[in-house]
Design goal:
This protein has 332 residues and is mainly α. The protein has helices spanning 2-13, 17-36, 38-54, 62-86, 109-130, 133-154, 161-165, 172-181, 186-209, 211-217, 222-225, 228-251, 257-279, 283-310, and strands at 184-185, 321-322. The protein has a two-stranded antiparallel sheet with strand order 1-2. The longest helix is centred in the last third of the chain and has 28 residues, at 283-310.
Protein backbone atom coordinates (compact mmCIF):
# COMPACT_ATOMS: atom_id res chain seq x y z
CA UNK A 1 0.00 0.00 0.00
CA UNK A 2 2.75 2.43 0.92
CA UNK A 3 4.71 1.57 -2.23
CA UNK A 4 1.76 2.44 -4.46
CA UNK A 5 1.28 5.74 -2.65
CA UNK A 6 5.00 6.51 -3.08
CA UNK A 7 4.81 5.89 -6.83
CA UNK A 8 2.06 8.47 -7.20
CA UNK A 9 3.79 11.00 -4.96
CA UNK A 10 7.07 10.72 -6.87
CA UNK A 11 5.33 11.06 -10.23
CA UNK A 12 3.46 14.14 -9.02
CA UNK A 13 6.59 15.75 -7.54
CA UNK A 14 8.51 15.17 -10.78
CA UNK A 15 5.60 16.77 -12.66
CA UNK A 16 5.76 14.01 -15.25
CA UNK A 17 2.23 13.47 -16.62
CA UNK A 18 3.18 10.23 -18.36
CA UNK A 19 4.55 8.73 -15.16
CA UNK A 20 1.46 9.87 -13.28
CA UNK A 21 -0.89 8.36 -15.86
CA UNK A 22 1.04 5.08 -15.78
CA UNK A 23 0.87 5.04 -11.97
CA UNK A 24 -2.90 5.62 -12.04
CA UNK A 25 -3.33 2.96 -14.69
CA UNK A 26 -1.59 0.46 -12.43
CA UNK A 27 -3.54 1.04 -9.23
CA UNK A 28 -6.61 3.21 -9.68
CA UNK A 29 -8.97 0.41 -10.65
CA UNK A 30 -8.13 -1.45 -7.44
CA UNK A 31 -8.88 1.63 -5.36
CA UNK A 32 -12.15 2.23 -7.21
CA UNK A 33 -13.24 -1.34 -6.55
CA UNK A 34 -12.20 -1.00 -2.90
CA UNK A 35 -14.43 2.05 -2.54
CA UNK A 36 -17.49 -0.03 -3.49
CA UNK A 37 -16.82 -2.73 -0.82
CA UNK A 38 -17.62 -5.66 -3.16
CA UNK A 39 -17.64 -8.32 -0.44
CA UNK A 40 -20.48 -6.54 1.35
CA UNK A 41 -22.35 -6.01 -1.92
CA UNK A 42 -22.39 -9.75 -2.65
CA UNK A 43 -24.76 -10.41 0.26
CA UNK A 44 -26.93 -7.43 -0.67
CA UNK A 45 -27.29 -8.73 -4.22
CA UNK A 46 -28.35 -12.15 -2.95
CA UNK A 47 -31.13 -10.55 -0.91
CA UNK A 48 -32.13 -8.72 -4.10
CA UNK A 49 -32.04 -11.77 -6.36
CA UNK A 50 -34.15 -14.21 -4.33
CA UNK A 51 -37.23 -11.92 -4.16
CA UNK A 52 -37.10 -11.59 -7.94
CA UNK A 53 -37.88 -15.31 -8.26
CA UNK A 54 -40.72 -15.08 -5.74
CA UNK A 55 -42.40 -11.95 -7.07
CA UNK A 56 -43.96 -13.41 -10.21
CA UNK A 57 -45.58 -16.59 -11.55
CA UNK A 58 -42.44 -17.41 -13.53
CA UNK A 59 -38.72 -16.79 -13.28
CA UNK A 60 -37.54 -13.34 -14.37
CA UNK A 61 -35.71 -13.02 -17.66
CA UNK A 62 -31.95 -13.17 -17.74
CA UNK A 63 -31.78 -9.59 -19.01
CA UNK A 64 -33.88 -8.29 -16.13
CA UNK A 65 -31.68 -10.12 -13.63
CA UNK A 66 -28.58 -8.69 -15.30
CA UNK A 67 -29.81 -5.08 -15.20
CA UNK A 68 -31.06 -5.33 -11.62
CA UNK A 69 -27.81 -6.90 -10.41
CA UNK A 70 -25.79 -4.22 -12.23
CA UNK A 71 -27.99 -1.42 -10.92
CA UNK A 72 -27.87 -2.86 -7.42
CA UNK A 73 -24.08 -3.07 -7.53
CA UNK A 74 -23.81 0.53 -8.74
CA UNK A 75 -26.22 1.76 -6.06
CA UNK A 76 -24.53 -0.08 -3.18
CA UNK A 77 -21.08 0.81 -4.49
CA UNK A 78 -22.00 4.47 -4.79
CA UNK A 79 -23.44 4.52 -1.27
CA UNK A 80 -20.35 2.80 0.14
CA UNK A 81 -18.06 5.27 -1.63
CA UNK A 82 -20.07 8.23 -0.32
CA UNK A 83 -19.85 6.72 3.16
CA UNK A 84 -16.06 6.65 2.89
CA UNK A 85 -16.01 10.22 1.61
CA UNK A 86 -17.99 11.42 4.65
CA UNK A 87 -15.98 9.27 7.09
CA UNK A 88 -12.58 10.25 5.72
CA UNK A 89 -11.77 12.20 8.88
CA UNK A 90 -12.11 9.16 11.17
CA UNK A 91 -11.21 6.19 8.96
CA UNK A 92 -7.51 6.67 9.63
CA UNK A 93 -8.13 6.04 13.35
CA UNK A 94 -9.52 2.51 12.94
CA UNK A 95 -7.27 -0.38 11.97
CA UNK A 96 -9.85 -1.99 9.69
CA UNK A 97 -10.42 1.22 7.70
CA UNK A 98 -7.09 3.04 7.67
CA UNK A 99 -5.93 1.27 4.49
CA UNK A 100 -8.91 2.51 2.48
CA UNK A 101 -8.05 4.74 -0.50
CA UNK A 102 -8.78 8.05 1.27
CA UNK A 103 -7.08 7.64 4.68
CA UNK A 104 -4.05 6.07 2.97
CA UNK A 105 -3.86 9.09 0.60
CA UNK A 106 -4.13 6.99 -2.55
CA UNK A 107 -7.11 9.06 -3.75
CA UNK A 108 -8.28 12.62 -3.27
CA UNK A 109 -11.68 13.42 -1.66
CA UNK A 110 -13.02 15.20 -4.75
CA UNK A 111 -12.22 12.17 -6.91
CA UNK A 112 -14.05 9.86 -4.51
CA UNK A 113 -17.04 12.21 -4.39
CA UNK A 114 -17.28 12.40 -8.18
CA UNK A 115 -16.91 8.64 -8.54
CA UNK A 116 -19.57 7.90 -5.94
CA UNK A 117 -22.08 10.36 -7.42
CA UNK A 118 -21.53 8.91 -10.89
CA UNK A 119 -22.27 5.43 -9.56
CA UNK A 120 -25.46 6.64 -7.86
CA UNK A 121 -26.74 8.40 -10.97
CA UNK A 122 -25.83 5.43 -13.16
CA UNK A 123 -27.68 3.06 -10.81
CA UNK A 124 -30.88 5.12 -11.09
CA UNK A 125 -30.71 5.16 -14.88
CA UNK A 126 -29.92 1.44 -15.15
CA UNK A 127 -32.71 0.40 -12.78
CA UNK A 128 -35.27 2.74 -14.37
CA UNK A 129 -34.51 1.70 -17.94
CA UNK A 130 -33.76 -1.95 -17.12
CA UNK A 131 -36.66 -2.50 -14.69
CA UNK A 132 -39.05 0.31 -13.74
CA UNK A 133 -39.24 3.65 -11.96
CA UNK A 134 -40.36 2.17 -8.63
CA UNK A 135 -37.24 0.00 -8.51
CA UNK A 136 -35.00 3.00 -9.21
CA UNK A 137 -36.73 5.13 -6.58
CA UNK A 138 -36.48 2.44 -3.91
CA UNK A 139 -32.79 1.97 -4.60
CA UNK A 140 -32.18 5.71 -4.46
CA UNK A 141 -34.11 5.90 -1.19
CA UNK A 142 -31.71 3.29 0.21
CA UNK A 143 -28.73 5.38 -0.86
CA UNK A 144 -30.12 8.57 0.68
CA UNK A 145 -31.06 6.77 3.89
CA UNK A 146 -27.63 5.17 4.27
CA UNK A 147 -25.65 8.30 3.44
CA UNK A 148 -27.80 10.96 5.09
CA UNK A 149 -29.75 9.28 7.92
CA UNK A 150 -27.12 6.74 9.03
CA UNK A 151 -23.72 8.18 8.11
CA UNK A 152 -24.47 11.88 8.45
CA UNK A 153 -27.07 12.08 11.23
CA UNK A 154 -26.89 8.95 13.40
CA UNK A 155 -23.49 7.26 13.22
CA UNK A 156 -21.66 9.80 15.40
CA UNK A 157 -24.56 10.92 17.59
CA UNK A 158 -26.65 7.95 18.78
CA UNK A 159 -26.26 4.43 20.12
CA UNK A 160 -29.28 3.62 17.95
CA UNK A 161 -27.23 4.34 14.82
CA UNK A 162 -27.19 0.71 13.75
CA UNK A 163 -30.80 0.01 14.77
CA UNK A 164 -32.34 2.90 12.83
CA UNK A 165 -29.68 3.06 10.16
CA UNK A 166 -30.03 -0.66 9.48
CA UNK A 167 -33.10 0.09 7.37
CA UNK A 168 -30.79 1.10 4.52
CA UNK A 169 -29.37 -2.40 4.22
CA UNK A 170 -32.89 -3.85 4.27
CA UNK A 171 -33.96 -2.12 1.03
CA UNK A 172 -32.59 -4.72 -1.48
CA UNK A 173 -35.52 -7.20 -1.13
CA UNK A 174 -37.93 -4.39 -1.95
CA UNK A 175 -35.83 -3.50 -4.98
CA UNK A 176 -35.74 -7.07 -6.27
CA UNK A 177 -39.46 -7.60 -5.78
CA UNK A 178 -40.41 -4.28 -7.39
CA UNK A 179 -38.22 -5.02 -10.41
CA UNK A 180 -40.48 -7.96 -11.28
CA UNK A 181 -43.88 -6.98 -9.88
CA UNK A 182 -43.65 -3.17 -10.17
CA UNK A 183 -45.15 -3.05 -6.67
CA UNK A 184 -44.27 -3.86 -3.08
CA UNK A 185 -46.38 -6.44 -1.26
CA UNK A 186 -46.38 -7.98 2.20
CA UNK A 187 -43.74 -10.68 1.68
CA UNK A 188 -40.91 -8.31 0.66
CA UNK A 189 -41.89 -6.09 3.59
CA UNK A 190 -41.25 -9.06 5.88
CA UNK A 191 -37.93 -9.60 4.10
CA UNK A 192 -37.15 -5.97 4.87
CA UNK A 193 -38.02 -6.53 8.55
CA UNK A 194 -35.90 -9.67 8.73
CA UNK A 195 -32.79 -7.79 7.61
CA UNK A 196 -33.73 -4.84 9.82
CA UNK A 197 -33.78 -7.01 12.95
CA UNK A 198 -30.77 -9.05 11.81
CA UNK A 199 -28.54 -5.98 11.46
CA UNK A 200 -28.16 -4.95 15.16
CA UNK A 201 -26.92 -8.30 16.55
CA UNK A 202 -24.74 -8.78 13.49
CA UNK A 203 -23.08 -5.39 13.77
CA UNK A 204 -22.96 -5.23 17.56
CA UNK A 205 -20.89 -8.41 17.51
CA UNK A 206 -18.38 -6.61 15.30
CA UNK A 207 -18.59 -3.49 17.48
CA UNK A 208 -17.72 -5.56 20.56
CA UNK A 209 -14.56 -6.73 18.85
CA UNK A 210 -13.67 -3.21 17.62
CA UNK A 211 -14.97 -1.07 20.49
CA UNK A 212 -11.56 0.47 21.27
CA UNK A 213 -11.34 1.72 17.70
CA UNK A 214 -14.87 3.10 17.77
CA UNK A 215 -14.13 4.84 21.07
CA UNK A 216 -10.98 6.40 19.63
CA UNK A 217 -12.92 7.56 16.56
CA UNK A 218 -15.70 9.04 18.71
CA UNK A 219 -18.40 6.78 17.29
CA UNK A 220 -20.99 5.96 20.02
CA UNK A 221 -21.59 2.31 19.25
CA UNK A 222 -23.62 0.51 21.91
CA UNK A 223 -20.66 -1.27 23.60
CA UNK A 224 -18.81 2.05 23.87
CA UNK A 225 -21.68 3.95 25.53
CA UNK A 226 -23.86 1.35 27.28
CA UNK A 227 -21.15 -1.19 28.07
CA UNK A 228 -20.55 -4.79 27.10
CA UNK A 229 -23.16 -6.44 29.38
CA UNK A 230 -25.98 -4.33 27.98
CA UNK A 231 -24.79 -5.11 24.47
CA UNK A 232 -24.90 -8.85 25.23
CA UNK A 233 -28.50 -8.49 26.44
CA UNK A 234 -29.50 -6.47 23.39
CA UNK A 235 -27.98 -9.07 21.08
CA UNK A 236 -30.10 -11.78 22.74
CA UNK A 237 -33.22 -9.60 22.61
CA UNK A 238 -32.86 -8.83 18.91
CA UNK A 239 -32.05 -12.46 18.15
CA UNK A 240 -35.36 -13.51 19.71
CA UNK A 241 -37.22 -10.75 17.86
CA UNK A 242 -35.56 -11.94 14.67
CA UNK A 243 -36.83 -15.46 15.31
CA UNK A 244 -40.39 -14.19 15.72
CA UNK A 245 -40.24 -12.00 12.62
CA UNK A 246 -38.89 -14.90 10.56
CA UNK A 247 -41.80 -17.19 11.44
CA UNK A 248 -44.59 -14.67 10.84
CA UNK A 249 -44.67 -15.04 7.00
CA UNK A 250 -45.37 -18.76 7.41
CA UNK A 251 -48.38 -18.19 9.68
CA UNK A 252 -49.71 -15.62 7.22
CA UNK A 253 -49.43 -18.11 4.37
CA UNK A 254 -46.71 -16.18 2.53
CA UNK A 255 -44.02 -18.87 2.84
CA UNK A 256 -44.22 -22.64 3.17
CA UNK A 257 -42.82 -25.61 5.12
CA UNK A 258 -39.38 -25.74 3.46
CA UNK A 259 -38.66 -22.20 4.56
CA UNK A 260 -40.13 -22.85 8.01
CA UNK A 261 -37.80 -25.78 8.67
CA UNK A 262 -34.76 -23.90 7.43
CA UNK A 263 -35.72 -20.77 9.34
CA UNK A 264 -36.25 -22.61 12.63
CA UNK A 265 -32.90 -24.38 12.31
CA UNK A 266 -30.97 -21.21 11.45
CA UNK A 267 -32.66 -19.13 14.13
CA UNK A 268 -32.10 -21.82 16.77
CA UNK A 269 -28.36 -21.63 16.08
CA UNK A 270 -28.48 -17.82 16.05
CA UNK A 271 -30.28 -17.55 19.40
CA UNK A 272 -28.10 -20.27 20.93
CA UNK A 273 -24.91 -18.45 19.91
CA UNK A 274 -26.34 -15.16 21.23
CA UNK A 275 -27.09 -16.82 24.58
CA UNK A 276 -23.58 -18.25 24.56
CA UNK A 277 -22.22 -14.71 24.42
CA UNK A 278 -24.41 -13.72 27.38
CA UNK A 279 -23.24 -16.75 29.38
CA UNK A 280 -19.61 -16.72 28.29
CA UNK A 281 -18.63 -13.46 26.56
CA UNK A 282 -15.33 -14.55 25.05
CA UNK A 283 -13.88 -13.11 21.87
CA UNK A 284 -14.22 -16.54 20.27
CA UNK A 285 -17.97 -16.67 20.97
CA UNK A 286 -18.52 -13.12 19.78
CA UNK A 287 -16.54 -13.65 16.58
CA UNK A 288 -18.37 -16.93 15.97
CA UNK A 289 -21.76 -15.16 16.04
CA UNK A 290 -20.52 -12.44 13.72
CA UNK A 291 -19.29 -14.93 11.13
CA UNK A 292 -22.39 -17.12 11.43
CA UNK A 293 -24.70 -14.12 11.03
CA UNK A 294 -23.35 -13.61 7.50
CA UNK A 295 -23.94 -17.25 6.61
CA UNK A 296 -27.32 -17.12 8.37
CA UNK A 297 -28.73 -14.38 6.16
CA UNK A 298 -27.51 -15.99 2.95
CA UNK A 299 -28.95 -19.40 3.89
CA UNK A 300 -32.23 -17.90 5.09
CA UNK A 301 -32.85 -16.22 1.75
CA UNK A 302 -31.79 -19.33 -0.12
CA UNK A 303 -34.37 -21.23 1.94
CA UNK A 304 -36.99 -18.73 0.75
CA UNK A 305 -35.96 -19.34 -2.84
CA UNK A 306 -36.08 -23.13 -2.52
CA UNK A 307 -39.42 -22.90 -0.73
CA UNK A 308 -40.80 -20.99 -3.71
CA UNK A 309 -40.15 -24.01 -5.93
CA UNK A 310 -42.67 -26.06 -3.96
CA UNK A 311 -45.04 -23.54 -2.39
CA UNK A 312 -47.42 -20.99 -3.90
CA UNK A 313 -49.11 -18.25 -1.90
CA UNK A 314 -52.82 -19.11 -1.66
CA UNK A 315 -55.41 -16.58 -2.76
CA UNK A 316 -56.73 -16.48 0.81
CA UNK A 317 -53.41 -15.27 2.24
CA UNK A 318 -53.28 -11.79 3.74
CA UNK A 319 -51.58 -9.43 1.34
CA UNK A 320 -51.26 -5.83 0.20
CA UNK A 321 -49.94 -4.01 -2.83
CA UNK A 322 -48.12 -0.70 -2.81
CA UNK A 323 -47.61 0.99 -6.18
CA UNK A 324 -46.59 4.39 -7.44
CA UNK A 325 -49.60 6.75 -7.61
CA UNK A 326 -48.71 7.66 -11.20
CA UNK A 327 -47.67 5.87 -14.35
CA UNK A 328 -44.04 6.08 -15.38
CA UNK A 329 -43.43 7.51 -18.87
CA UNK A 330 -41.06 4.61 -19.47
CA UNK A 331 -42.67 1.20 -19.11
CA UNK A 332 -41.25 -2.23 -19.76
Amino acid sequence: MQLRSTILEEAALNENPQDLMRAYARISWRDLVALTKPRIIALLLLTTLVPMFLAGPQAPSGWLILWVMLGGFLAAGGANALNQYLDRDIDHVMVRTRQRPLPSNRMQPKDVLIFSLLLCVASFVVLWLGANLLTALLSTAGIVYYVWIYTRLLKRTSTQNIVIGGAAGAIPPLVGWAAVANEVSLLPIFMFLIIFYWTPPHFWALALMRQKEYRAAGVPMLPVVAGEKETYRQIVLYSILLLLICTMPVFLGLLGPVYLLGSLALNWVFVWQALDILRSPTNANIWRLYKFSLLYLALLFLAMGIDGLFYSIPDTAVNLSLRLPFRSPIQQ
